[in-house]
């Protein structure tokens, strides 16, 4: 899947022989991943993707034969220095000096847009996207699932923005429902205005836990019901207390999100959709979709045979709305307000059927755009505990990872005097959390381990940060090199070629992640880039080499650092410059 100007001669060559327009071939050609077997080709063509008569039954032998026939019709030239065949592929090796010159020029010229400007994305329409992520519940613990939702949603938003889409980052708070009746009563009994101001999340959680112990008491139940009823009726005093809960909590969330490097364009919440969910129930009724059960609840039939073998409950027997009704109202409202092309919801996989029902009901209501809504689901994290015990608040995790990282940095022999060790520990620690989370498929559950996440060697966020800092300090030492007119003949060692070949593949990896919204492609690409750069750093010294060689190597390392930094930022990591 090619974009690099280097692939153009290959495309032209194939286009002539196959009599196909070059743009039809862009996705049939891909850069070859770097492997232990050195001296591999740079690009390969998948023969199956261009042969009209190649049915899925084509045997490997047929494809190999077709590859050989095609290769015989192609001639090397000034750009393509070698053509060979593999299993079902035709492989092209590019003139080595041209490879170095073109890749380095492109990386340094495009800067933060390298890879994003690729032809791979030329046919992708620019869209307006609402991404709903994080979405904690006020007064309940901000658990590790919210952390996953926050960093995954942030990654998807970063990627979409980088690719030129317009993104609205939405935080849909759990700020309504019966639990607020209980919380209101709890606050009247145990609340403290000062504590609510200074640490709202902690204080409301403590109040909620305390009142919950008495939740079975008939009197408490009645008071809670009354409090929530007053809320629904917009009683001024009750509403004003609820508003304080919400406003102070959001203020504290914003501060914590800032530590994560995350921001939101809109703080929405279930409370916005009280009235509107009643309108949705009326619409469902008018369209003949709302059915009453014997118990008096309202359901929507989702079964194919219309026999209620699959249904979704949208109304309580007392006529009040449920979570899904509020979600329906929210979806319709957002679509009206933002007229976006697509909406993405990032939550854990236990909510998969909720979103299937949501999208199905919207379709039944006649909203075709529901087809373009998407639920990005993720698995559960087991075993995340701090030294003080179970994780309750996100802030505990951030403080823990920072203090562990500070400790590791203090005991590491390589650590130099750092200007701001706390800030650095925070950024490196966050990189460790993000990489551990993003290494596998998002839908997989995983076992969290502090030790594994914070290793400085191996496939960790710490290793990425360490590599970036090393390459940065190399640049600082030799940074005044003139990098426009380097002699690429000095970059012919296998370790230099491996880095160049890997840089060539960056746009394909971005394309892959943009298609399935999985960060793992970018993670594994950056880890490989860091390992290749570490090897090259050892075998291709800048210091003590002839000026021309030093200059060329400097340019190579600068290109590697630039792409590493771009990829890290997409994942939500701030690259550090010293460590």
From TrEMBL:
GO annotation, biological process: arginyl-tRNA aminoacylation; mitochondrial translation
Keyword Chaperone set for record: no
Location of the protein in the cell: Mitochondrion membrane
Enzyme class of the recorded protein, top EC level: ligase
Listed SUPFAM superfamilies: Anticodon-binding domain of a subclass of class I aminoacyl-tRNA synthetases (SSF47323), Arginyl-tRNA synthetase (ArgRS), N-terminal 'additional' domain (SSF55190), Nucleotidylyl transferase (SSF52374)
GO annotations of cellular component type: mitochondrial membrane
Record-listed E.C. numbers: 6.1.1.19
PANTHER family for the chain: ARGININE--TRNA LIGASE, MITOCHONDRIAL-RELATED, ARGINYL-TRNA SYNTHETASE
NCBIfam families: argS
Task performed by this protein: Catalyzes the attachment of arginine to tRNA(Arg) in a two-step reaction: arginine is first activated by ATP to form Arg-AMP and then transferred to the acceptor end of tRNA(Arg).
Protein name: Probable arginine--tRNA ligase, mitochondrial
Species assigned in the record: Amazona collaria
